[in-house]
Design goal:
The structure holds 2 protein chains of 2 kinds. By secondary structure, chain A is mainly beta. Chain A has 8 helices and 62 strands. Chain A has a 22-stranded antiparallel barrel. In chain A, strands 10-16-17-13-14 form a 5-stranded mixed beta sheet. The longest helix of chain A has 8 residues. Chain B contains 22 helices and 8 strands. Classes of the chains: A mainly beta, B mainly alpha.
Chain lengths: 1089, 521
């Protein structure tokens, strides 16, 4: 099993050595676990750089100088062994497995592999092989529950967004996600979802750019937090996700082929229960000419009952199979079977779930790895074809990767990686609640959960189009006017207004390193990440909204050139030194060219910008950023017991004023392996560590010099339109600082049956560069300043244990726990809060507010008495606070991942639970779904057993659970409640439901929920076939897996908190029109030749 | 030795590779020194859009003034306004800051020279001052005390738009008192008018008068007349001084003087109400029952046919009705009542839509102020003068393109000028400027044809068909048309102390029915 831990291991121990005569030693290295040959064991002639690795069968050959040579055999997961050569020419040995991962090597900053035991900070690494056991959708969500200190929110929209933060949010408005580094190359994880969309207005979820990385290419993922990340500079203030990809490594002659194939199925999972007692429209009273609550109309000489199709609510008459009505689809002669056909007024047989399809994905990949003594190359191709749960949606992705290295002229090593990928997606869901002025029509989420007729049959609504291409919407203006009033037919949205996007991306690097003298190495590397991302958004002619076409082409590139000098030396076996000095130049350019039709499309079904009735509206944006850096680091190890790490870096950024654009920041960490001095029988390993660091940070481009912007609506009456942006820039900005310290200990106990890794951290960000929100009466929304202080302190705990290990059976447990206590300490004197986002209809505001956790939802709360009872007004409806008050943060209190893994012979079973406690979210769907009589609660039965929709005078209505009392409000919004008595006033069902809308003066807290969840995130059952004796086969593995199989502990059973993930940014916790999350399951076959 | 040199050299190479400083990367997307014509053009258009769009006008002033009602979701008709409507506040101030930038770039020594190509510096400054006064007048009428900016008055309580001012840098401005605001608006209009040089180059980017500076003078004077009249109850001496001065300097004398903002024919820059109906495809509004009955010469009746509102033009059909309203599918003009619930509203399919001239004309001319208003003001100032009254009615009809014969017939039957007839005609003429009509209602209490909260009345969807409805406010305690709009909530956190001080000046607090300073009767 320890072979799993094989990672690329760089030999660091070097020293001066004079060369003399040489001779060759050969032999075989076996593992004590199975007595089989152990591949990739590092063999070094002690005190030199000479060495080799064993081949697949554990055989090796190494040249050693004559004289007193000692060979050091090392392999991850095994104890090192030193053999004095003497006059032997064949040395065979068996390596003893090291049951814990003490010898574990992790990849640290600048790609340096180091023994975890010697680090003065917390680093946690996830191995590619662990991820590969089931088919991962992407790299970020694969980390969910696997690493302490990391919080992940993931939507399961097709190609959708994921947000990852390490040790909490430290920036009010800036990037809070970590830097992503792949093989030493920073890559973009941008997210292009519009801010308005993230806060709940309409828009598409285009996902984040890290979705591009193929999880099957990952060798390991190392998560650097706080101190560990300091060397990466400004962009690492939020930590670093360091991804090492699989490569062909020079060293031995081999050729392998791996073929993976997976099939994945996906279904809509958590969604709200909707009522099935009353149909859509409204009850037309007898006074208004209604018959049985319906409008009666005369068509072709016959009287019919028609529901009020123009009203997109479900406050219509109660279902009654004896009443025949003309449904919405009975008016088109293109559908003769339905034309003027009456149907009974009953609940639909084909409800919302009928709309969703089973998403099916196929992932097929092939990897060829060939290596020789001096060169290695790996070539991979992966094809992903996914169908989403929405009709008409699919995603196709092709990844091609080539990576290898070569040793030339003895001292020169060349490494190169190149990745190309192309992703095309159709039918991403339009999410949220489009705001006035947005070009979108209504979103599917709105038409499922907020504004709909409950009796709609989702099979019948597949007939969404007439022969002439016009739309058939259930929400016709009226029976004799088929124009969609507010809503398009769901299927029209899915098929006719289907967006498309396409991304082409190349990233890779080329590195050279040359050994100047033994122990001193100079290395140079250039890396690039280049992509073009084209999005096409359509509103078809015949939609409720004016037809339009929008096309955005984004191009991005980032190039890094890096030169490093590395020095390593060992002094008399007691002292080790590794030092690096380097410089980096970063160049980043982003361009957006966007066009949008105006005034509708000239002809239908042609999606070209020139097919615009009016002027084509354009945007042309270029963002350029440059950072130059120098950095140095040194780590000193003393007798494998005491380790000191020092780093320093200075950056010069093009985004800051020229007087303030240079900033220096250091870090230091110390670790002490106390188990080297304290010998306790039950203690296998013990270490304490302490680290401290500062990371300074620049800002986004163009926040210094005041400029004026062109209006993207173009000229008006022949004159250009120009305006001062609503954020005032600042010529005196300076870098912001994050100061962090951490302390931790690691221990391995009871013969390595129990492992503990505990960290306490504290980071404080000051002098943040923020668009300080100001009173709008200044003429601005915000001014950029350096201000504010935000603190994150918390603990990370990883427990590993092996409760049972009997014969071939083993049960391993791993628990990752993260608790983060975040507080906004200060903004600026006199400013208590700043808005990060406002939910549609302003029911809640997402704010940074002083004295509380970042990402605080402010809304209108219930009024409560001393006992915490909700207070109702004399009329029986909720009382509410007159002002917005804090209702809780969208950020969780703690997260925990629990993984149980069982192995028995070739079988392995792993179950991963992901738990989140704390945090809040706000649901606009909940608000309108009640207002419009769609959710099940709006047709419930009251405590007297009567329908709440029945008149209060007839025993209907609803008695709200609260007390009556006298409320005295003070001007500042505080209040006292006195003279409370039990509530005894029933209110009408519709009255109560409608008052979920806070605009009537009622609490928006009615639609705020706890974001707690317990998810069975991943279950994998696999079998590794025994292929010994089959010459051409290396391994065969078959696995079945499931993801997000079960969800428990939700505050509202119909609302999964992860539906609020509308982007990767700081705007979280607001939902205004969602597509359900999915659960998926699949099969994976892995073949190695 | 050689080895050490070698190492030092290499180290130096590594460091020098990146050690060089970088320059600030300037924004390649935006302009450092903007043409003031572009700023004026954009700010004026946005101010017009923000004030006259389907949200602030369509769902606020037009429904409050009962020119319109909403056809389905009529919460605002019953005084539940959206936070986004209160938040129009921020858009107004952004636009005002851009007007101020026009002034700044025509004042600053470095920029005034290059910008004089877009009109003489003084003329540009004067136009910006007039438009700022016009805007601030609307805002003060909406909320009461507000943060205020003055070009000409260093009053320390005028603290708006001072963030970009490096010396003061006010992040949370005080709210100026209304008495000081209106006083300053009147002075600003007076000074701006005097600043205009008709012989110097006219302003470029002016889509109201196309750079006709003489017209701007008249507009400044006429606007001063409007503002002074409004505050006459609260401060008669100040008002009268300005009224006399404005009239002496020359106010509008015909429709040719009207201040109107012309939209484009293309959808993207078309008039806001055109866009609401034709781009957003929202057929959410219809002329109100009360307004259609007024124009049709009928009273609004209760369930026993007794009048609940009295029509001063009883029996007289207004020829502007076909301009303001379309016929319904049965060929009648039927106004929309305000409904208790959306379900009732939707069955009211026999309503009329607003007239083509209002909602289907992309290049609509949005009036800021018309000559007819000036005529009605002059009638009022001269003891309900009959001639000015008739001038007002005739000008309103002529502007709307009513046929001369229809005008003559109507004028012949028109009841004589008195407080009610003049102010009711003034109300009718302000169909496209509901905000001013709202101020007029608060000042005078006219028209008397509104259906006030807690009224039961009857509608007649077809001849002979009666439907009984009632109107209640969704906001408890409101028995009349609202007096003001609440402050936007974001001021609580961003400018809490100053907001609280302003609320303290309101007699009932930050609620809809706190009367404004000038609303004295």
């Amino acid at each position: 099993m320890k072979r799993i831990l094989l990672v690329c291991f760089l030999v660091c121990a070097v020293a001066f050595q004079s060369y003399a005569q040489e001779r060759t030693i050969s032999g075989t290295v076996l593992s004590d676990e199975d007595n089989a040959g152990l591949p990739a064991v590092n063999i070094i002639v002690k005190g030199t750089t000479q060495g080799t690795t064993t081949d697949l069968d554990g055989n090796y050959k190494v040249s050693v100088p004559s004289g007193d040579a000692t060979l050091v055999f090392s392999s991850i997961g095994f104890q090192n062994q030193e053999i004095i050569v003497g006059d032997q020419s064949v040395i065979n040995l068996t390596l003893l497995s090291d049951i814990t991962q003490l010898g574990e090597v992790v990849v640290t900053a600048l790609g340096i592999s180091r023994e975890k035991a010697g680090l003065g900070y917390a680093v946690q690494q996830v191995e590619g092989e662990d991820l590969e056991k089931s088919q991962q959708t992407d790299v970020i969500s694969a980390l969910s529950g696997r690493v302490a200190g990391v919080q992940i929110n993931q939507s399961s929209n097709i190609g959708g967004s994921k947000r990852i933060t390490i040790r909490g949010a430290s920036s009010f408005f800036g990037e809070n996600q970590p830097l992503i580094v792949i093989d030493g190359l920073p890559v973009s994880n941008s997210n292009f979802n519009a801010a308005a969309m993230q806060s709940g207005s309409g828009g598409f979820d285009y996902g984040n750019m890290l979705n591009d990385i193929n999880p099957d290419d990952v060798e390991s993922i190392s998560v650097l937090k706080g101190t560990a990340a300091a060397l990466y500079g400004s962009r690492a203030a939020n930590g670093v996700i360091l991804i090492t990809t699989k490569k062909g490594n020079a060293g031995k002659s081999s050729f392998t082929v791996d073929v993976n194939s997976a099939v994945n199925f996906e279904n809509a999972y958590v969604m709200p229960d909707l009522q099935n007692k009353y149909g859509g429209g409204a009850i037309v009273s007898d006074a208004n000419g209604g018959v049985d609550g319906f409008e009666q109309v005369e068509i072709e000489g016959q009287n019919y009952l028609v529901p009020a199709y123009g009203v997109d609510e479900s406050w219509g008459p109660r279902y009654d199979p004896s009443i025949m009505v003309l449904p919405w689809n009975a008016f088109s002669q293109d559908y003769p079977d339905e034309y003027l056909q009456q149907v009974p007024w009953v609940a639909t047989e084909n409800d919302v779930d009928e709309f969703f399809e089973t998403g099916t994905s196929f992932v097929n990949s092939i990897f060829l790895t060939g290596t020789t003594e001096n060169a290695g190359v790996r070539i991979g191709f992966t094809n992903t074809t996914s169908g989403g749960i929405l009709p008409g949606s699919d995603l196709k992705k092709n990844n091609i990767t080539v990576g290898g290295n070569m040793k030339m002229f003895d001292k020169l090593t060349v490494t190169a990686n190149l990745n190309y990928l192309r992703t095309t997606t159709q039918g991403r869901p339009l999410l949220g609640y489009p705001a006035s002025g947005q070009r979108y029509g209504n979103t599917l989420g709105q038409t499922f959960w907020q504004w709909v007729h409950r009796q709609i049959d989702y099979k019948v609504s597949k007939g969404y189009k007439n022969a002439d291409g016009t739309q058939r919407s259930w929400n016709r203006n009226s029976w004799d006017d088929p124009t969609p009033h507010y809503s398009d037919n769901h299927h029209w949205i899915a098929y006719e207004n289907r967006p498309e996007d396409e991304r082409n991306r190349v990233f890779g690097n080329l590195g050279l390193s040359y050994e100047l003298t033994p122990g001193l190495e100079i290395g140079g590397r250039v890396s690039g990440d280049i992509f073009t991302f084209e999005a096409r958004e359509k509103v078809a002619v015949g939609s409720q909204a004016q037809s339009s076409f929008y096309k955005a082409v984004r191009t991005f590139h980032e190039f890094n050139s890096e030169l490093t000098l590395r020095y390593s030396k060992e002094f008399n076996n007691d002292l080790n030194l590794n030092a690096v000095v380097g410089g980096n130049q970063m160049r980043q350019e982003f361009e957006l060219t966007r066009g949008e039709t105006s005034g509708g499309l000239v002809v239908p079904n042609l999606y070209n910008l020139l097919n615009s009735a009016g002027n084509v509206l354009v945007n042309d944006i270029t963002d350029i950023k440059r950072i130059n850096s120098v950095f140095a680091s040194a780590n000193i190890g003393f007798r494998n017991m005491l380790y000191l790490d020092l780093t320093a870096r200075n950056d010069w950024s093009s985004t800051l004023p020229e007087d303030n654009n240079s900033y220096f920041y250091p870090s230091a960490s110390l670790s002490f392996v106390f188990s080297e001095t304290v010998q306790l029988p039950w203690l296998d390993f013990g270490k304490v560590r302490f680290g401290v660091a500062r990371v300074s940070k620049d800002t986004d481009p163009y926040r210094v010099e005041t400029t004026y912007r062109f209006n993207s609506d173009g000229t008006f009456q022949g004159t250009p339109r120009i305006f001062a942006p609503d954020e005032l820039l600042n010529a005196n900005l300076k870098p912001e600082n994050t100061d962090t310290w951490e302390a931790g200990f690691e221990a391995s106990l009871f013969n390595n049956r129990l492992g503990i890794d505990f960290t306490y951290f504290n980071n404080t960000t000051t002098d943040q560069i923020i668009p300080l929100e100001v009173s709008k009466s200044t003429g601005y929304n915000a001014k950029f300043i350096n201000a504010g202080e935000i603190e994150n302190k918390g603990i990370e705990l990883t427990l590993t244990g092996t409760p049972v290990r009997v014969g071939d059976f083993a049960w391993d447990i791993m628990v990752n726990y993260t608790k983060i206590d975040n507080e906004v300490i200060e903004i600026l004197e006199g400013i208590d809060a700043m808005d990060i986002a406002t939910a549609p209809f302003s029911g809640v505001f997402l704010r940074a507010s002083v004295g509380s956790r970042y990402g605080q939802l402010w809304g209108y709360d219930f009024v409560r008495d001393d006992q915490g009872n909700r207070v109702v007004l004399d009329n029986g409806y909720w009382a509410r606070t007159p002002n917005l008050v804090p209702l809780g943060s969208v950020m969780p209190d703690w997260n925990m991942g629990i993984r149980n893994a069982f192995t028995y012979k070739g079988f392995d079973l792993s179950v991963l639970f992901d738990i989140q406690q704390g945090g809040k979210f706000y649901s606009v769907s909940h608000m309108w779904g009640h207002y419009s009589g769609i959710w099940e609660e709006t047709a419930q039965v009251n405590d007297q057993g009567n329908e709440i929709r029945s008149p209060v005078s007839e025993g209907g209505g609803i008695l709200l659970d609260g007390v009556k009392g006298v409320i005295d409000f003070n001007e500042d919004g505080s209040y006292t409640v006195s003279n409370t008595t039990p509530n005894d006033t029933y209110v009408s069902g519709q009255g109560w439901a409608a008052r979920h809308y806070h605009g009537f003066g009622f609490p928006s807290a009615q639609s705020v929920f706890d974001a707690d969840y317990i998810k069975m995130r991943e279950v994998t059952l696999g079998y590794d076939f025994d292929v010994t004796g089959i010459e051409f086969l290396r391994n065969v593995r078959f696995s079945v897996y499931g993801r997000n199989l079960l969800v428990f502990g939700l505050d509202h059973d119909g609302l999964d908190p992860e539906i609020t993930v509308n982007g990767s940014g700081n705007i979280q916790g607001i939902e205004a029109g969602f597509i359900p999350q999915t659960r998926s399951y699949g099969f994976k076959l892995q073949l190695g030749f | 030795m050689k080895n050490i040199k070698y190492k030092i050299l290499t180290l130096a190479l590594v460091i020098s590779f990146a050690a060089c400083d970088v320059d600030y990367e300037s924004n390649p997307n935006e302009i450092n020194v903007p043409p003031t014509s572009g700023l004026l053009n954009d700010a004026t258009k946005k101010m017009m859009d923000d004030l006259y769009d389907q949200w602030f006008q369509g769902r606020f002033t037009l429904v409050v003034m009962q020119y319109w009602h909403q056809t389905v979701y009529g919460d605002e008709d019953r005084y539940v306004f959206r936070e986004s409507q209160r938040e129009t506040w921020e858009d107004f101030y952004y636009n005002l800051e851009n007007f101020r930038k026009v002034i700044e770039l025509n004042t600053d020594e470095e920029f005034r020279g290059p910008n004089s190509q877009y009109g003489s510096n003084e003329n540009q400054i004067a136009v910006a001052r007039i438009l700022m006064s016009w805007s601030f007048n609307i805002m003060a009428d909406t909320w009461g005390d507000i943060p205020y900016y003055s070009y000409g008055n260093p009053d320390p309580s005028f603290q708006a738009l001072k963030l970009a001012d490096v010396e003061e840098e006010i992040l949370s401005p005080q709210y100026a008192e209304q008495s000081a605001i209106y006083d300053d608006i009147l002075n600003e209009l007076q000074d701006a008018e005097a600043m205009i040089d008709e012989n110097a180059q006219g302003v470029v980017g002016d889509n109201i008068y196309g750079g006709d500076m003489a017209a701007w003078k008249k507009f400044a004077n006429s606007l001063r007349l409007r503002v002074a009249l409004k505050i006459r109850g609260a401060d008669p001496s100040m008002a009268d001084a300005h009224i006399n001065d404005a009239i002496a300097k020359g106010v509008f004398t015909s429709n040719a003087d009207n201040a109107g903002f012309t939209y484009e024919s293309a959808d993207v820059n078309a008039a806001p109400l055109y866009r609401a109906f034709n781009v957003d495809n929202r057929t959410d509004f219809a002329p109100s029952h009360a307004f259609v009955e007024l124009l049709s010469g009928r009273n609004v009746l209760d369930h026993s046919d007794a009048p609940v509102t009295a029509n001063p033009f009883l029996g007289l059909t207004d020829p502007r009705l076909p301009v303001f309203s379309q016929l319904n599918s049965e060929g009648n003009y039927v106004g929309m009542p305000s409904f208790e619930n959306s379900g009732d509203a939707i069955v009211y399919t026999w309503r009329s839509l607003p007239g083509d001239a209002i909602i289907n004309t992309p290049n609509f001319v949005q009036p800021l102020m018309d000559y007819s208003e000036v005529a009605f003001i002059l009638s009022e100032l001269n003891g309900w003068d009959q001639t000015e009254y008739e001038n007002g009615v005739r000008a309103s009809m002529e502007k709307l393109g009513v046929a001369a014969a229809d005008i003559d017939a109507y004028m012949a039957a028109l009841p004589a000028a008195n407080e009610e007839s003049v102010l009711t005609q003034k109300y009718i003429s302000m169909y496209s400027d509901a905000h001013t009509a709202w101020a007029e209602y608060r000042r005078t209490g006219y028209p008397h044809t509104f259906i006030l909260p807690d009224t039961e009345y009857s509608t007649f969807p077809s001849p002979g068909v009666r439907r009984d409805v009632s109107f209640t406010s969704l906001v408890e305690g409101i028995t009349d048309i609202p007096n003001r709009l609440q402050y936007p909530d974001f001021e609580r956190t961003l400018n809490g102390d100053n907001r609280a001080a302003a609320v303290g000046n309101l007699s009932k607090g930050d609620v809809l029915d706190s009367p404004l300073w000038w609303d004295v009767n």
